[in-house]
Design brief:
The chain has 131 residues and is mainly alpha-helical. Helices cover 63% and strands 5% of the residues. The longest helix is centred in the N-terminal third of the chain and has 21 residues. It is elongated and about 45 Å long.
């Protein structure tokens, strides 16, 4: 495995680890290792990396790791091209016959709207009211 691929995989795992601990607090290192298909030692390294990045991790009294309530990841920001791609893509999906795809498109557009750069913030509002 190339270094770039390992780095990407670790970065993705660290991000997923934060999301998992926010939605399912109290998981042990063994459970986390099984979930991600890595060793417990790797999980301990990942937890240390998150802690060094100021993610407020704690070990619960009943066992398992959790992130202190109120912690949130910094918001995503999209470039103008990325925002345009997302807006066009969700507009296309909202015209599909499958109701679940339309609902997913609506949710993803509203969740991503705060991340659009200035000129697209208004476009997003206009697109929402037009669709």
């Amino acid at each position: 495995m190339k270094l770039a691929e390992r780095t990407r995989n670790r970065t993705e795992r660290l991000f997923a680890l934060i999301l998992l601990l926010q939605t399912r607090p109290g998981l042990t290192a063994r459970q986390l290792a099984e979930h991600f298909g890595v060793s417990r030692r790797t999980i301990f390294r990942d937890l240390r990396a998150l802690s060094e990045a100021n993610v407020p991790l704690t070990y619960a009294e009943g066992g398992g790791y959790e992130i202190l309530e109120g912690y949130q990841l910094p918001p995503l920001m999209f470039t103008a091209r990325e925002a345009a791609t997302l807006l066009i893509g969700t507009a296309f999906m909202k015209r599909q016959p499958d109701a679940s795809l339309r609902a997913d498109a609506t949710r993803s557009r509203s969740r991503s709207a705060p991340c659009y750069p200035g000129p697209f913030a208004n476009t997003s509002t206009a697109c929402r009211s037009a669709s």
